[in-house]
Amino acid sequence: MKQLSLGVIIGNRNFFPDSLVELARVEIIEVLTKMNIKPILLDSNDTKLGGVETFGDAQKCATLFRQHADEIVGVLVVLPNFGDEKGVADTLKMANLNVPVLIQGYPDDLNKLDVARRRDSWCGKISVCNNLYQYGIKFSLTSQHVVRPSDASFQQELKDFMAVCRVVKGLKNVRIGAIGARPTAFNTVRYSEKILQRNGISVVTCDLSEILGKANKLTKDDSVVKERLEKITNYAKTGKTPSEALIQIAKLDVVLNDFMAENVLDATAIQCWTSLQQNYGCNVCTSMSMMSENMLPSACEVDVTGTLSMYAMQLASGSPSALVDWNNNYADDENKCVLFHCGNWAKSFLPDIEISNAPILGTTVGVENTYGALDGRTPAMPLTYGRLSTDDSKGIIKAYIGEGDLTDDALNTFGNRAVAKIPDLQKLMQYVCRNGFEHHVVMNASKTAGILKEAFENYMGWEVYQH
Fold first, then answer.
1. Where would you tag: which of 162, 166, 229, 308 has the fewest CB atoms within 10 A of its CB?
2. Do 368 and 440 contact (CB within 8 A), yes or no?
């Protein structure tokens, strides 16, 4: 995973032992380096021991942070002793990075509570947080009030915090392509561009006819089409898919990739049902799967907030996401259900992936016009699920998230399919229905609900229900 940069503030208060600050600086640099995190912090010659105590120290640290503003994704506050709460708060205020902040405090040793060796970080952390609250600066906390950076528990929490930073940074600048019109029957995927834009999320629209028009101008002899065809056949088994359908898929894939590159897009939501089949003669699922596998998530039925959810989960976990339907009960098990879609899930979910057709859609548009849908069963793996949605009547972005497991339970059907086991699933379905969420949900093979809640609720200011 790409190395990220973290601003580091080492709090200090001059009547505590200098050696504590010196040791903390060495330790935190070692920990961050081991975790492939680049620390941005004052040199030990810039201020006393490289710590932040006075207003002058805060000015120097804030200046350093501003110089690296483009690369700093979050700030870690380290308190080897009580620290100076105003120095920490002033640094963050003047730097004005508007990134997540994690507060860490060192524990005292029970046999070192004399004047020469005591830390008082337990108390100092409360004071720092109090000042940040007064300044209106949002921050995150470790589960243990005080913890050593060398502890495995802290390093896991720091790893999770970096994931929070990735989510927040990504969501504040994301660009989503909305290709085509929402299918008339799918009122469920309606959303507010204005609410998204106010939260830093840009939507670039394109009429489907523009995409199909460019695709129809390409031929099987064009080098770009041959290149895409090779990538497609290397990506998945083609099964019984005719060569003519594969060429149609490849031509469409060329134009979609060009559109993404031209508009610098991070994700797409594409009209499928049923214009593509009727006017072009294939499904776009294979292209969507390939994009999602390559960390450029793509959702069908122009589900813009669905693909936004895919992108957020991808940022949290570092792995692809998939858009699915809450589709069926699983026999009489109240905590299991079937997740399904025609066939656009990333390859990571489908070890037996094969290019096929869409039988349900084919009943109305002809099965021969639905090649490009994928067939495959998702095996047992961890599950984080949920989605973001704009609630226009409230003028907000809201979300629900949770964790469960995908299982190997028997499932005799077609398309992209999985069985999910979710504790208290019936209560979750009550919440989804009563709060007007869509029938689409997003799944990710991770356990990252806590990361997403912290990013969405604490830093983005969105309404979150964690099941």
1. 229
2. no
Q: Is residue 403 scored above 90 in pLDDT?
A: yes
Measure the CA–CA gap between 223 and 127, rounded to whole angstroms. 64
Q: Is the pLDDT of residue 211 over 80?
A: yes
In the structure encoding, which two tokens stand for residue 162, read together? 């970096």
239: alpha, beta or left? (left if phi > 0; alpha if psi -120 to 50): left
> CB count, 10 Å around CB of 232?
21
User: Mean pLDDT across the chain, nearest whole number?
Assistant: 96
Q: Say if residue 265 is exposed, middle or buried (CB neighbours under 10 Å; 0-12, 13-18, 19+).
A: buried
The whole-number average pLDDT for the span 108-132 is 89
What pLDDT does 112 receive? 83
How many Cβ atoms from other residues are within 10 Å of residue 239's Cβ?
13
Give dist(CA 16, CA 23) in Å, integer. 13
Cβ neighbors of 398 (< 8 A, separation 6 or more) are 388, 389, 390, 391, 435, 462, 463, 464, 465
β-bridge mates for residue 401, sequence order: 386, 466
175-466 maps to CATH 3.40.275.10? yes
Helix (H, G, I), strand (E, B) or coil at 352: coil
CB 339 within 8 A of CB 324: yes
Predicted confidence (pLDDT) at residue 15 exceeds the cutoff of 90? no
Residue with tokens 């501003």: 66
CA atoms within 13 A on the CB side of 409: 17
Tell me the CATH number of domain 4-171, given options 3.40.50.10940, 3.20.20.70, 3.30.70.260, 3.20.20.140: 3.40.50.10940
